[in-house]
Amino acid sequence: MLFSATDEDVIFAECRSLKVDLSAAMQIVADRLEFTHQKKHYFVCDLSKVQSVTAEAKKYLQHPDGGLKNILGAALIASNPVAALIANVFVKTPKDFQARFFSNRKDAFDWIHARKQKSLT
Fold first, then answer.
1. Which pLDDT score, from 0 to 100, does residue 78 have?
2. What are the tens digits of pLDDT across the range 95-109?
3. What is the DSSP letter of 93?
4. What is the mean pLDDT of residues 2-10?
5. Does residue 35 surpass a pLDDT of 80?
6. Burial of 22 per CB tally in 10 Å (0-12, 13-18, 19+)
7. Rounded to an integer, what distance in angstroms lies between the CA atom of residue 63 and that of residue 96?
8. Whole-angstrom Cα distance, residue 97 to residue 80?
């Protein structure tokens, strides 16, 4: 996973793994939390290269103390059917923040910045 910050609290990640198992999921989350210094943040993630996620990885990524930790809002990008299915599972997971699925980066960033602005008012 490659991380970059577009704003102080907006993180962009591009998943490079084709297959995500529990070990990879745990490493991705640990890397994200380290990159953000454990601070709350908005998250934009491009899942387009992901081809599969194991059941164990999915469960971990859907857990409040796992994959959902410190996220204020999430925009997921998926440009293929498999990645779109994975993104939709995450979007439909019960959580304390809003998440949406997009097919392109521009729409994802527009939406996440609108969520951020809305939370400031």
1. 93
2. 999 999 999 999 999
3. S
4. 83
5. yes
6. middle
7. 11
8. 25
pLDDT exceeds 90 at position 12: yes
pTM of the model: 0.89
DSSP single-letter state for residue 72: E
- Look up residue 18 and give its DSSP letter: S
On whether the CB atoms of residues 70 and 36 are closer than 8 A, the answer is yes
Cα 78 versus chain centre, distance: 11
* Tokens at 100, concatenated: 């949406």
- Residue 106 tokens read as 């521009």
Structure-token match 């907006």, residue found: 10
* Residue 76 Ramachandran class (φ > 0 left, ψ -120 to 50 alpha, else beta): beta
The tokens describing 10, both together, are 């907006």
The answer, yes or no, to whether residue 116 has pLDDT greater than 80, is: yes
Using 50, 70 and 90 to split pLDDT, how confident is the model at 57?
very high
d(CA 58, CA 115): 25
- How many H-runs (helices) and E-runs (strands) does the chain carry? 4, 7
